Amino acid sequence: MSIYKKLAGQTAIYxxxxxxxxxxxxxxVPIYTRVFEAGEYGVVTQLYSYIALMTVLFTYGLxxxxxxxxxxxxxxxxxxxxxxxxxxxxxxxxxxxxxLFAPQLSGIIGTADDIAKPGQSRSLYISMFAAxxxxxxxxxxxxxxxxxxxxxKRFVFIRLVGIVSNVGLNLFFLVICPWILKSNPTSWxxxxxYPDFGVGYVFVINAISSFxxxxxxxxxxxxVDWSFDKQLWKEMMIYSFxxxxxxxxxxxxxxxxxxLIPILIADKSTAMAQLGIYGACYKLSILMTLFIQTFRxxxxxxxxxxxxxxxxxxxxxxxxxxxxxxxxFIFLGIMLFMDVIEVFIGEKFRSGLPVVPILLMANLCLxxxxxxxxxxxxxxxxxxxxxxxxxxxxxxxxLNFALIPVLGYMGAAWTTLICYAVMMIISYFLGQKHYxxxxxxxxxxxxxxxxxxxxIAGDFLRGAIHPxxxxxxxxxxxxLLIFIVLAYVQVRNKNSYLRPTSGK
Length: 504
Known about the structure:
Elements: H1 2-26, H2 28-35, H3 38-59, H4 62-72, H5 77-100, H6 102-109, H7 122-148, H8 152-183, H9 200-216, H10 218-222, H11 230-264, H12 268-282, H13 286-305, H14 312-336, H15 338-341, H16 355-372, H17 374-378, H18 383-407, H19 409-434, H20 441-465, H21 469-492
């Protein structure tokens, strides 16, 4: 069990930055949803959707390619230098182009036309958008090197510094400055704070925080020998290009609904507000998202490093089983305590809460898909990653165009779930053909099923007896304990009926 403990330990360390980071950023949601109107928060949601899409293009799968070739080249320093030099050049070039054409791009995107105030500059939003993209892309390879070298503590430290600076500056400009000016309009704060700048502060602060991370990573950047291996770069690009396509298609699956909502909703007067509501409620699935993210930080190098060991397929199957158990527990915990969690968003955003269980299940399917994807990465069939993500993108676009005009943001939520479920199922069957892993499919349905059943049972029980807040918490904790006991029994029972679908 030592390898599982090692993976769990790495996940916990990386999780420190992600969990604390996400939770700290989560604290911004109640601020944003109370400081900004739904339409203004819709602008934030809209632009960050574009940032997510463009980030894939700015890194073009080179961070994953780095892991693959650093392993196969037995730590050749040219893998690091070639990757870093490529990313630096491309980021500065394309980031500069976006800044140069910011006025034209802001007009194309149509940022904040309906809510713009005199102090808000759409072009500045786009320029800050470009800076965030460039800084984050350049830091991707140094961060990957830290992960490869198992320097998790330094990784966490730098991540947290960037996150804390982001949260701190948001609190200063969006909470403290308005409070000071309200009590003392002549304060020196008036010289640095402009109320009409509004959501512009979100993007400026993000750019500053990303730059702080870049500065902290300078020792890793300057340590490189600046040698560029053209042949190696070509090989890495061949490997990473399908991953870029897969990543881009994946971002379409993950974020394009937030691009399409203001376009496809017929009532343009409420479209941006609906986007803001959907974006805020999407944040409530954060615990599932952050677990998946932290797991991936540790799992990617773990899976590659164990590919040459004895019977790695059994290891991958066991990891998947534990992963599903944790995800089922997270789903159940969020849904049972939704009355507590919902206070983190403004009251005017809570009409979108019905999307939360749908999005939680969607993210769970996505997490399983990430686990399954090891088959095409280890077999160098990365084109399948692109194909699967493109299939998902087709499903996403088709269903979004069909459902959003009819169901609004609920249509976007159902589309997300269906898309990830389809990708997960297809990847499973392809993986069993090309790189068979004895996954316990029965375990997946078992734990997801009991988490849903226990959630519904909890809601029914509370509705039937109308307990007070304290007794309601006790009921929820008992239900969570039941899930834990059932999970423990299943894991301990080696001869469980939840047996593998293939392998020994």
